[in-house]
Amino acid sequence: MTEKLSGMEEMRSQMAALGAQLRWGADLDLPVGGHPDGEMLVCGMGGSGITGDFLSAVAATEGRRTSVHKDYGLPGWAAREKPSVVVVSYSGDTSEALSSWESARDLGLSVTVVTTGGKLGEIATRAGHRAVTVPGGFQPRSALGYGLSAVLRVAAAAGAIGDPRPSLEEAASIADSLSGPEGGGQAIASDLAAAMADRMVGIYGSSPLTTVAAYRWKTQINENAKRAAFRATMPEATHNEITGWDFPTGLADSRVGLVALRDRDEHPGVSKRFGHLEALTADRVSWTGEVWAQGSSPLARLISLVAVGDLFSLELARVAGADPVRVELIDRLKERMTPSPDSGPRAF
After folding, report:
1. CA-to-CA distance for 44 and 297, rounded, in angstroms?
2. Which tens digits make up the pLDDT trace of 291-344?
3. Which of 169, 223, 266, 315 is the catalytic position?
């Protein structure tokens, strides 16, 4: 009989599969379509919805634009612009994603769903919408490689971005080198966690790419380590946030640690600001480290930061004795939002 893995072991195993998940998407058999009727819009929440942020960042490096919607329904402009809609829900039962699908259906928009199944897979198939079924058995936040690679392939088939398969292969190799069983990302993650001690974590992005990665770091720290975290973007943070480190006196210096996520394509002005900012604020807040993106393609560089951030969140969880799998507060909220069978449609 196989012994059940602990939450820590289970999450580490799932993180190690990132490279394999990206290769799965690179090998997807999707027909190549023409250009979409309008802008591509990705709808989803949490670990599923972040695939839209990643797509937008990658598309921007190609001089293209896609949008993300993380709410019920669709944005107000959808009825006029008629975007091609991709609804992503790993479970297939996320209420906001189901609401977005229903709105897209009612508007007669082109819809693709990315899911393991659930209600979303069922109703999309019944309606004749294209459904990309991803493998199950993972925590949604640990299935990023599946959802992201599928969304990228769908976007490419619609003409919203170029062929992502070479980038997916490079990203998969980098993921293996960092978060695989023998990956080198663990040492980086351990050093960062040791420097962070019991501080609140702040993550600073230096470019559109690293800003998306910073958001991933924040949410992974929240869910895996059960720890408060925030993220900010350069150069915007130097126009407002940095003035908030003065009061309460000594709070930021003793209780906040900042990690900078850097990229070779960040603007020279941002690079210069980082240097000046660290020097000017050394007595106000602790800069605990920086992580540089690795790889050639924008996608590979994004994934390199994701891999290190995932491991960092797991190391913070280990130090705190937190179970990275369980998300009790989220589960309890869903229970409260779920009506009894005789009280009408589900609304969580």
Report:
1. 25
2. 999 999 999 999 999 999 999 999 999 999 999 988 888 888 888 887 655 544
3. 223
Quick one: average pLDDT of 162-188?
Answer: 95
Active site residue 239: yes
pTM reported for the whole predicted model: 0.93
- Give, in order, the Cα–Cα distances in Å from 85 to each of 43, 159, 205, 321: 7, 13, 28, 41
Q: Are strands 229-233 and 256-262 parallel, antiparallel or unpaired?
A: unpaired
Q: Out of 182, 239, 328, 335, which one is annotated catalytic?
A: 239
Question: Which one from 39, 102, 278, 334 is the annotated catalytic residue?
Answer: 334
E strand or H helix that includes residue 331? helix 328-337
Rounded CA-CA distance 58/302 in Å is 9
Tell me the DSSP string of 127-165: HT-EEEEPP-SS-GGG-HHHHHHHHHHHHHHTTSS---H
Task: Read off the amino acid at residue 339.
Answer: P
Is residue 335 annotated as part of the catalytic site, yes or no? no
How many C-beta neighbours within 10 Å does residue 258 have?
A: 25
> In the structure encoding, which two tokens stand for residue 117, read together?
């199944």
Average pLDDT over residues 32-54: 83
The string of pLDDT tens digits covering residues 231-267 is 999 999 999 999 999 999 888 889 999 999 999 999 9
How many Cβ atoms are within 10 Å of 114's Cβ, its own excluded?
Answer: 32
Q: How far is CA 47 from CA 163, 168, 283, 325, in A?
A: 23, 19, 36, 13
SS3 222: helix
For 233, the 3-state DSSP assignment is: strand
Encode burial over 280-315: b for 16+ CB neighbours within 10 A, e otherwise: ebeebbbbbbebbbbbebbbbbbbbbbbbbbbbbbb
Q: Is 334 a catalytic residue?
A: yes
Mean pLDDT of the chain: 92
